[in-house]
Task: inverse folding
């Protein structure tokens, strides 16, 4: 079974688990966001934490968007999950276990060191690498294991991907949605700026 087929299988299984295990006391695992949610331009970034192009976008394009628009109260940015493999899924689950204040720092670490932690032969080795990163932000070893086994967090992460495929027909990363319009392919800052400025 290919990685893509494996991911599709876990997504469909998650849908079943999600509807069978909803709880009235479910915890809110909010996505990391920047800016004022009432801003005129709303941008969603769909990324997979093992995707090199996503790392490039996060390290090069996102800071320019923050500086040019978010700091001027013109844009609201939300970081969405679109895991392409089990390693990315687990990395995203670990992010959700951190406080919202630590998640930006965690993502910077994950993306800047992507080739180190994701370059392993087995998922177990990747998980060990992720644990070492997690412990930099939360020194509770048992908390890491709880995160990996937490189906509620897994459902939350995979729901982003399910919704993105259904609503925006997203099938690659990174992809962005600006005021409900999808943009894929070249996502350089100069290209996005043209589309954004038309909305301001």
Result:
């Amino acid at each position: 079974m290919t990685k893509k087929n494996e991911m599709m299988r876990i997504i469909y299984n998650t849908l079943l688990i999600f509807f069978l295990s909803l709880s009235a006391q479910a915890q809110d695992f909010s996505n990391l966001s920047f800016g004022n949610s009432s801003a005129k331009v709303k941008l969603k970034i769909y990324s997979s934490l093992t995707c090199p192009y996503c790392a490039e976008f996060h390290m090069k394009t996102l800071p320019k968007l923050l500086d040019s628009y978010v700091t001027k109260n013109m844009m609201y940015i939300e970081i969405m999950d679109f895991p392409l493999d089990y390693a990315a899924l687990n990395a995203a689950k670990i992010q959700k276990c951190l406080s919202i204040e630590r998640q930006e720092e965690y993502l910077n670490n994950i993306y800047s060191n992507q080739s180190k932690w994701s370059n392993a032969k087995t998922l177990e080795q990747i998980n060990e690498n992720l644990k070492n990163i997690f412990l930099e932000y939360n020194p509770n070893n048992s908390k890491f294991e709880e995160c990996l086994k937490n189906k509620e967090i897994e459902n939350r992460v995979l729901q982003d991907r399910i919704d993105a495929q259904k609503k925006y027909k997203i099938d690659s990363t990174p992809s962005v949605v600006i005021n409900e319009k999808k943009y894929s392919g070249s996502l350089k800052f100069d290209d996005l700026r043209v589309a954004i400025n038309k909305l301001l």
In short: The domain at 3-194 is CATH 3.40.30.10 (Glutaredoxin). Strands lie at 33-34, 41-47, 75-81, 175-178, 181-183. The longest helix spans residues 3-20. Confidence is low (pLDDT under 50) at residues 16-26.
